[in-house]
Amino acid sequence: MTERGAGARLPWAPRSHPRPAMSDATAEKVFKHYWEDFVPGSVREFGAMPVTREAVIDFARQFDPQAFHLDDAAAEASLFGRLSASGWHTCAMAMRMMCDDYLLDSASLGSPGLENLKWLKPVGPGDTLSVRLTVLAARPMASRPAVGLVQSRWEVLNQHREPVLTMDGWGMFRRRHPAAAA
Predict the structure, then answer these.
(1) What is the CATH number of the domain that holds 43?
(2) Does the model's pTM come out above 0.70?
(3) Which end of the chain lies in a sparser environment, N or C, as judged by fewer CB atoms within 10 Å?
(4) pLDDT tens-place string over residues 139-149
C-alpha cells in the first residue's frame, strides 16, 4: 500500500464542489449530465471504495449500534460470522460513489424515493465496493416540463463482482432542452 501525501484526494474523498444551492443566479449553470444523458438501457460502472474496520464501527456507533456492527466477538457469533457493515452504511457508501461519479456534475433535482432495496450479502472490512448503474426508463415529468424522471437500478458489487446490494428508484433531473421532447 502506498502512502498518500497530505491533501491527496482519495477516490472516495469529497470533491471540491463550491456549488451553492440553486437560485435564480445559478439556474443557468451548465452541468455535465442532464436528463437527456440518461438513456434507457445504458449502463455505467464506477467506484472503488475500500471498507475499513474503523469506518464500519464509526458508522455503527452513530447510526446502527447493533453488536455485529460494533464488536468482533459478537459478529463472529452472529449469522454474518465477521464484523459486518450496516446495510445503511452500504447505502451511504453507494451514495458517496454516485455523488463522486455523476450526481455532483449533474442537473439533479433529488429523488422522490426508492421502490426496492435489498441487501444481498454482508459487507465487511477488507471489501472494496463499486457501483453498476442501469437506466431502466426516462420520461419527462408531466407536471413540470423542464424536469425529466429517470428510473434506475443500482447494484453495489464487492471486489469479487458479487452484488451485495440492489436498489431501484427514480431521480429527477433538469432537462437540457425542455421543449425538445414531450
Answers:
(1) 3.10.129.10
(2) yes
(3) N
(4) 999 999 999 99
Q: Which domain holds residue 128?
A: 35-51+94-174
What dihedral do alpha carbons 107, 111, 115, 118 form, nearest 10°? 80
Give the N- to C-terminal CA distance of the chain in Å, as an integer.
52
H/E stretch holding 90: helix 87-101
Domain count, the chain: 1
Residue 100 belongs to some domain of the structure? yes
Output the nine-digit C-alpha cell for 16. Answer: 471540491
SS3 101: helix
Does the residue 73 lie in any domain? no
Distance CA(17)–CA(32), nearest Å, equals: 13
Q: Tell me, rounded to whole angstroms, the distance of Cα 89 from its chain centroid.
A: 11
Long-range contact pairs involving 90-96 (C-beta distance under 8 Å, separation at least 24): 90/119, 90/123, 90/129, 90/156, 90/164, 90/165, 91/117, 91/165, 91/167, 92/59, 93/12, 93/49, 93/51, 93/129, 93/156, 94/129, 94/131, 94/154, 94/156, 94/165, 94/167, 96/12, 96/49
Torsion sign (Cα): 152, 50, 32, 172: positive
pLDDT 10s digits, 15-74: 444 444 545 544 567 899 999 999 999 999 999 999 999 999 999 999 999 999 999 999
